[in-house]
Design a protein that fits this description.
single chain; mainly alpha; about 75% helix
């Protein structure tokens, strides 16, 4: 349950907010104060709980999807293209490559054997189900950050999540591929003779800005469609989306530096290094996403006149404490005892006369 304050819908107040209103709100509140209030809203809106749940679903979607892509490439394309995909995946995790290479080799052999296509399709379905569940968790987390306690009905919620997963999930995956895997992909394309040096240079120059624009666009639309409310203009939500992308890139860079430069990370986890790194990355990605949403929500709350990001710390705002307090203050009424002797007949009169009844029956 969220204890973040409810954000009034500025649309109902006759205000259609855009990027200019967001800048004005930034100047009126102050950047540092807005950052602190946004983090408070994130924390009291169960942001960490939502981030952990989303991170789990991301991992359950990424691993089967990567295995599906490797297996599909081994069946549908020739050897050079398959080597490009394998080298790209290996470059993403400098440590623990032997375990990843063994997993990919096993996937390739299994896909080419009997029943391999069925297994790949099952992996793809598993990835899509996990991704849809993740987008459903984003809806739930967005509602809590905005102070909304009730989600959409179950069928509507998961239908909406599936549509978001197929559309925005694909757009986000493309942005991720351009910014994170774009470098290893370009090197692999050049090493296998598909691209020239000039093509790699152009690719390196355009992949970052294009990927950043796609990431901000996809997250902006997600912020617009996820909560169960009427959102402001997308130019307003783009502020929170841009902050989320910047945080995500910064946290991803710090994690990559730690994994590659730390002398103990790979030795401690051994072949599980890539699993631990993926778990960390998914959690940091989820935290960055919900922090950006919390900033957009706090901006709108300030504009609507609700400056406090969390409910007051007293029993009046605690649902459980309020119910207990009402029970304690309610007058205790007991049922009066019936003193009439006729109301309680003697025990021998209340029991049936079994002897007479059995005798009459004969």
């Amino acid at each position: 349950m969220s204890s973040a304050t409810h954000v009034p819908e500025t649309y109902e107040l006759g205000q259609e907010l855009d990027i200019r209103d967001a800048r004005a709100a930034f100047r009126s509140v102050g950047t540092w104060q807005l950052i602190k209030d946004s983090y408070t809203r994130f924390r009291y809106g169960d942001g960490f709980t939502s981030s952990r749940a989303l991170a789990l679903q991301l991992c359950l979607a990424i691993v089967p999807l990567a295995i599906f892509l490797e297996g599909a490439a081994s069946v549908l394309v020739h050897g050079a293209a398959r080597r490009v995909l394998t080298q790209t995946l290996l470059h993403l995790m400098p440590t623990g490559q032997s375990a990843i290479h063994q997993l990919l080799s096993h996937t390739t052999k299994a896909a080419q054997g009997s029943g391999g296509i069925v297994a790949l399709v099952f992996g793809l379905v598993t990835a899509l189900v996990s991704l849809s569940t993740g987008f459903a968790q984003i809806q739930r987390g967005a509602n809590r950050i905005y102070g909304i306690q009730r989600d959409r009905p179950t069928l509507q919620r998961y239908t909406h999540a599936t549509v978001l997963a197929l559309t925005l999930g694909s757009l986000s995956a493309l942005a991720f591929a351009l910014m994170v895997t774009g470098g290893p992909f370009g090197d692999a394309m050049h090493a296998n003779g598909f691209w020239s040096s000039t093509t790699v240079t152009v690719w390196t120059a355009i992949r970052w800005p294009v990927g950043a624009v796609l990431a901000v666009l996809s997250i902006t639309i997600l912020f617009d469609r996820a909560p169960r409310r009427h959102q402001p203009a997308r130019s307003w939500l783009g502020t929170g989306a841009a902050i989320a992308v910047v945080l995500w890139l910064g946290l991803t860079l710090l994690l990559a530096l730690y994994v590659t430069k730390s002398p103990t990370f790979g030795s401690v986890y051994g072949p599980l290094t890539w699993v631990i790194a993926l778990l960390f990355w998914a959690l940091l990605t989820s935290i960055a996403l919900f922090l950006g949403l919390a900033l957009a929500a706090q901006l709108e709350a300030v504009r609507a006149g609700v400056a406090e990001p969390a409910l007051a710390n007293d029993e009046e705002h605690d649902v459980v404490a309020t119910r207990v307090r009402r029970r304690e203050l309610a007058p205790r009424t007991r049922r009066p005892l019936d003193t009439d002797a006729n109301a309680y007949p003697p025990a021998e009169q209340s029991l049936p006369n079994t002897a007479s009844s059995s005798g009459s029956g004969r």
